């Protein structure tokens, strides 16, 4: 392997020059829509929000792809990854010229976005050539390839006026393809190539640094300095044309005056980070950015002052010259900040530059996606052009305050320990929040200490989970009202929107299932609760404009899935706090009262959207067809203060358990357990039905009984289901979890038959009442089944683990059983949550294909029959494989080859 001190300076400069040129061209392509979008907007008659989405879509692909491209670069080297990436991007730019609809433009934009992923490929490739003392400067020079945005802003307008947008795209595609081939032919393999080929790290080890919170702190800073740069580079030409009346070519030149210093001075930022330290450079960056964004956010204002001789009028507005100077200063300091952030990565993570840099770049790039999209939405909703800088001011001010708090804390640690801190420990867990000694099975410990702590954590967890369910399901209520405020969507499109939070929530649960032992329950509960602010706020803005594109609404629906993911981590966390004898009741309380959030939401939302009491905070209402007003934005905004309070309570009131730590590898053993997968099926039948019916019931009632105001009654179903789960957990303790689950499925079959009967006889005078009563029976049964299935899981694994791990001591078997039970509880909840997607989508598909929901209901009956048979065969019949009876406790019937079939 070549060492840095043996690499000739000529080879280092060659690698740096090629990668910088390639990145410059990639960045020029990545921001191509900032110019082409202006002509495309006229050709396709796009709104500001649609234009913002089109500009932001390549940034989304470029951001998300950075993580995966970073992994590929760490694994295979930058030469081939960089070259092939440019060839693929060139192909996508060429195919864009065939677009003849807005949807096709968005698809093309997704492909073009891959050019943005080139950044992390170049970072990993370039840093591998340079020694530690020169990496900051080298990466600063490479990062100056951001000047590609200026190339596009300066040159593309002239090509556009001379050739049209399609021919301009062809020119870009040709240049990109030539550069891709040249890079493969001229670039050399980096000095780490031999060691990379000799030792292939497992993916689990390669992804390990992502568990370090330092990575995500760097990501926050990069969200502003890079994401904000990309957002303004895309938005400024449009802003300058509309606000200052400039021509397209003049707007491109002025925008270049922002992007050039925001790119070239990144070199200076790298040198200053090497010389003065990245922390100091970040301070300068944030302080200057706060001042600039504040001044830029001030809208033109007319003042009238009561003077001595009558009213005195004067006007304040930012002149064009002042605007240009302020944006140039802002771009300069952003460039310093970009270099300072990436100075840290090769120092802290020399073997994972691609992965860590990809994660940081991904978050920063997502800023470049969400910010322009939000700029357009703020324009449509607020109607003030300077709102984009107002948002930027809020972001950078928050980052500055957090960083200052973190640095002061680091200084206190330095003074106490008399050593220099090399990191900012703002997200470390203070010792007072960590339970080093936790023995809930010890009766004396439990009575003297444990119960009080566990109870406090439970009662903080419950409102956090309740709010998570509110956000997860609020979209079903919003969707039901969208047509009344001017959104022209088909019934199938509406059911898709109602179903998407279930899809994303279920998928997130798969990951959230394993987070508590890795990150700690207190920390992850607080962070996951805070994440609910994003969909809550975005709902409030998006629903105020009926021209908001369907794709934007779909993205918001997916973000609501953050609430669905929280259930898995919350249940896994509470499971660690309680002894076996009280675990079932505690989980039932946490889940049942958390599930109550669906009912709370369905009760509260109809109230707040029908009142203008909060108009000074949330904006004016939207007119309906009958001239009444509806404040639909309140459906999102109403949760914001409660989420903020719950986040603070979780951060300062909950605890992490030191012994509840394990890696993903240790928890992933559940994927080998047959009963994990069987319980996934059963819990999908109970909880999947509860959450799916909660999401689909309001819209189904609205479509099948249009004369009924479904939102007045929708909350009762989840209310019944949540309370039955919270207060019938004792049934499973008294009669056996398997037996209760068996009868639950039989009851659910009867409930679906009732719904089916009354839908097929809608002309009956009591049709709606019978339909409603049948659904209430379904909700009640799902709540009982939710509690009984979760009661089964710890019993199953306390029997299975000793059989599968006979060489361990009883104490070690107990630890493994608790760990596998917690992981299984989280994972089964993840799989079951797909019911929130499948049930509404089944209703929508059935109505679209057959004109009614009957086909979907028949499918549910078939599935419940299967679940009934599964429960009886494996758990409730006499002589079952694991017989969960009351007399002997869980027993397992030996079978031939059992030891060979499960391992």
TrEMBL record:
Similarity-based family: Belongs to the major facilitator superfamily. Nitrate/nitrite porter (TC 2.A.1.8) family.
InterPro entries recorded: MFS, MFS_dom, MFS_trans_sf, NO3_transporter, NO3_transporter_NarK/NarU-like
Annotated source species: Halomonas litopenaei
Primary site of residence: membrane
TM region(s), chain numbering: 21-40, 52-69, 76-96, 102-126, 138-163, 169-187, 220-240, 246-269, 281-300, 320-341, 353-378, 384-407, 458-482, 494-512, 524-544, 550-576, 596-617, 637-654, 675-698, 710-728, 740-760, 766-789, 822-843, 855-875
SUPFAM superfamilies in UniProt: MFS general substrate transporter (SSF103473)
Keywords for this protein: Membrane, Nitrate assimilation, Transmembrane, Transmembrane helix, Transport
Keyword Ribonucleoprotein: no
Presence of the UniProt keyword Repressor in the record: no
Sequence ranges assigned to domain Major facilitator superfamily (MFS) profile in this UniProt record: 14-411
Protein name, as recorded: MFS transporter
Membrane topology: Multi-pass membrane protein
Location(s) in or outside the cell: Membrane
